[in-house]
Design brief:
By secondary structure, this protein is mainly beta. It has three helices and 33 strands. The strands form eight sheets. The protein has a six-stranded mixed sheet with strand order 22-21-24-29-26-27, with no helix packed on it. It has a five-stranded mixed sheet with strand order 3-9-8-5-6, with no helix packed on it. Strands 10, 11, 12, 14 and 16 form a five-stranded mixed sheet that branches. β31 and β32 form a beta hairpin. The protein is globular, with a radius of gyration of 32 Å.
Length: about 475
């Protein structure tokens, strides 16, 4: 029995040895095949993984925008001065917002040959130029699959040559010189005063039509704007204290709408928030009437509330004022005395926007199509800033301080002078200005990439032109 047991153990050892040898030979074959074919799986091997470097700045997307098919990873560098992100539309994949100077990684997975649209989704950035095409080829590309910690694309940090600088200078000066000339003219003017009809009982009736219309934001740039009465901003409704008002709205949009009377004192059932205070105004011809009495002074605005994230940035906003802003006549403010006889030569709503199809704009226009204010030396004028955008805007006027006399239509007990006024979304500031010095004085948002790109000005810039009647030259 002992001999049989030893024989069985020896046989088992041989069997285990054979199995182990076969196993090791199999592993070796697999490793060899992997080394030979450069991958594993279905004989042809996996495609090479690629890491491409993409740069974001104000306002462009550059870098390794051509990659080979296969597994693609984007190393996204924010080389700008504000937050940006990167989103691939066709894949519905993107990064979170990336702070200035930071980097994010975006895994796209296996990509087939084709073209993919990449954008920054922060409000107004795509329309300002942050859109590009990621091309996926079936062969090698400029991206080499390595990560060098920076960009290997066209925007990578080479020093600017004199020739490159001269080219940018020439483009900038040529474009800026068009301001105020026929070359800057565009179709359409917003903020036009809406004239009412009068009902037999004396009620003022204002007719508004919500519709999508072609709107020329700057020369040659026509967008599909969501508008009231075909203009951006919509028509200015000017009321007197005590006016009885009926606003008849016709909805020609492809979706329902309503109108919120932002800052106007009125009954709850006229506030304009479907479905809480009214039914939705149906698309394709639905109508609704708002009725109220103008009981308190206001520097207010009206805009869509339902679907507001789409309708408002795309143009459905407008001013409504009730009565006149009380000016601090005869008062001395910071050693400056306001004369008792000041009569402003103009009152101007200045609506700020930064998103949607309209993008960075003043009164629905982007520089050089923004209209200058033209006054004579010594004139006083009133500006009402309205922020209907999604970002804050510090509004700076060269040459003259601005006397802030009201906030959100409410008279300030203590007016104050400022050359730059920060206007947040939904806010209104009313300012009194005297044009004391002749010349052309630039007027703009002081977040500089809201007004300027490397080779041109755009967006939230205009000017005050002061003429001297005593010196026409």
């Amino acid at each position: 029995m002992a001999t049989d047991t030893r024989r069985d153990k020896q046989s088992m050892g041989v069997i285990i040895g054979v199995i182990a040898a076969v196993y090791l030979l199999g592993i070796g074959a697999i490793v060899g095949a992997t080394a030979l074919w450069g991958g594993s799986g279905s004989g042809g091997g996996a495609a090479k993984a690629t890491t491409a470097n993409i740069d974001l700045s104000e306002f462009k997307i550059t870098g390794d925008l051509t990659v080979p098919a296969g597994k693609v990873t984007l190393k996204v560098h924010n080389k700008g001065s504000i937050n940006h992100n990167l989103h691939v539309k066709e894949l519905d994949k993107g990064t979170d917002d990336i702070t200035a100077g930071s980097t994010a990684t975006l895994e796209l997975g296996e990509l087939k040959p084709g073209k993919y649209t990449v954008v920054c989704t922060i409000a107004g950035h795509e329309s300002s130029g942050m859109i590009a095409t990621l091309t996926v080829t079936d062969g090698a590309s400029a991206a080499d699959g390595t990560d060098d910690g920076g960009s290997s694309g066209s925007s990578g940090g080479h020093e600017m040559t004199l020739a490159e600088g001269q080219k940018l200078d020439d483009a900038m000066m040529t474009q800026m010189a068009t301001f105020g000339t026929d070359a800057a003219k565009t179709e359409g003017v917003g903020n036009q005063i809406l004239q009412p009809t009068i009902d037999p009982d004396g009620t003022k009736v204002f007719n508004l039509t919500a519709e999508i219309t072609d709107w020329e934001v700057e020369p040659g740039k026509v967008v599909k704007a969501w508008s009231y009465n075909g203009m951006v901003p919509g028509p200015w409704i000017k009321l007197n204290l005590g006016d009885r008002v009926r606003v008849h709205v016709t909805n020609k949009l492809p979706m329902g709408t309503d109108i919120h009377w932002h800052g106007v004192h009125l009954p709850t059932d006229q506030d304009g928030v479907a479905p809480y205070t009214q039914p939705l105004i149906k698309p394709n011809g639905g109508t609704y009437d708002y009725r109220f009495t103008a009981t308190k002074p206001a520097v207010s605005m009206y805009h869509a509330h339902v679907h507001g994230e789409e309708a408002v940035p795309n143009g459905m906003f407008a001013p409504i004022t009730i009565g006149e802003v009380e000016l601090p006549l005869g008062r001395t403010i910071s050693d400056v005395t306001i004369p008792n006889n000041v009569k402003p030569v103009l009152e101007l709503p200045m609506v700020l926007n930064d998103a949607g199809t309209i993008g960075y704009s003043l009164n629905g226009k982007s520089f050089p199509a923004t209209a200058p204010v033209v006054v004579n030396k010594g004139d006083w004028f009133v500006v009402h800033y309205y922020n209907e955008g999604l970002q804050v805007h510090p509004m700076h006027m060269h040459g003259f301080p601005q006397l802030v006399v009201a906030k959100d239509g409410i008279r300030l007990d203590n007016p104050y002078w400022a050359d730059t006024i920060l206007v947040s979304p939904g806010e209104r500031y009313s300012v009194l200005i005297q044009a004391t010095e002749p010349g052309t004085w630039v007027w703009h948002c002081h977040i500089l990439n809201h007004v300027e790109q490397r080779d041109r000005m755009f967006g939230m810039a205009s000017a005050v032109i002061v003429k001297d009647p005593s010196n026409p030259a």
